[in-house]
Amino acid sequence: MALKHSRQRDMIKAFLMGRKDHPTADVVYMNVRKEFPNLSLGTVYRNLTLLTETGEISRLRVGDGVDHFDADTSPHYHFVCTECDRVIDLEMDNIDTIQDIAGAGFDGRIAGHVTYFYGTCGSCMKAPQPGQKSE
After folding, report:
1. Residue 17 region, left (φ>0) first, then alpha (ψ -120 to 50), else beta?
2. Which domains are present in the chain?
């Protein structure tokens, strides 16, 4: 079944393609409605779900209770800052051998994996801590 063309869906996808920070549906909504003032949050959610189901974008569930969206569907890894909640692409060598390691003692077939790295991003590391004087 072919999808009916939607300018809102095109705009949502274009917005995501221009981002590297993996925004939430609320962030997508607040930005795309600048172009489409009558756009509803429900329409954004429906289109994000549709784009995810068709494989045009990826939905990231990083443990913060809210979905993040990524237009880069190629295999890659993400870093989640536990201070500011940013989700950032990690530039690193592929670690697909982890599937071989996991499958070695597993009675079945592993078809894929999702790996998130957690810690503090560079921006948060540089930010003055409460009670600390900035230099």
Report:
1. alpha
2. 1-73 (1.10.10.10), 75-128 (3.30.1490.190)
